[in-house]
Design brief:
Elements lengths: L1 H5 L6 E3 L1 H18 L3 E6 L6 E3 L1 H21 L6 E10 L2 E9 L6 H4 L17 H11 L3 E6 L5 E7 L5
Parallel strand pairs: 2-4
Antiparallel strand pairs: 1-3, 4-5, 5-7, 6-7
Length: 165
């Protein structure tokens, strides 16, 4: 996290969403696999490019995946699953990425402040990861939100505007 914050200015480029997500999962895959959790990726064909800092956006995906995996592990759940789904939406024009897990869910008192600094449900958490994710997504012209927080169907989503063809 310190290295990420020290990086300074964002390096903006055109990004292929499928590659961004696949690369992030390749980084997280071994660690998540050791926990016995299955990771899947479902990306719609021919998504338009997004524009931004690929390292920052990968950090968002990695943080979301790791949070989901840690929640599943800490709840001692078997057959943990995390799915990442990316789709194109037209109104407004954006790419929407969903991260869906079958973990224990998010308590209502935490859910209402989930993206605020110092909010955590982890005993050793700082409560900064999701607020940094929100800052990154917002700096890229998007937004991030908790879509569903029930046990077995927790879903976080973020959206990013895409480049016009």
């Amino acid at each position: 996290m310190r290295d990420f914050l020290r990086r300074g200015r964002a390096r903006s480029s055109a990004i292929i969403v499928r590659d961004l997500l696949a690369d992030a999962l390749a980084l997280a895959g071994p660690e998540i696999g050791e926990m016995g959790i299955t990771l899947t990726l479902d990306v719609a064909e021919e998504l338009p490019l997004v524009h931004g800092d690929v390292v920052q956006l990968q950090q968002v995906v990695l943080n979301l995946v790791r949070n989901a995996a840690e929640a599943i592990r800490d709840a001692h759940m078997f057959n943990g699953r995390i799915a990442i789904v990316a789709r194109r939406l037209e109104s407004p024009r954006r790419i929407e990425v969903s991260l869906i897990d079958n973990g224990p869910g998010i308590a209502a008192d935490v859910a209402e402040r989930l993206f605020h600094p110092l909010t955590t449900s982890k005993s050793d958490g700082l409560g900064l990861g999701l607020s940094i994710c929100a800052s990154i997504v917002e700096a890229h012209g998007g937004r991030i939100w908790l879509h569903a927080s029930q046990p077995g169907t927790t879903e976080l989503r973020f959206s990013l505007p895409f480049e016009r063809a």
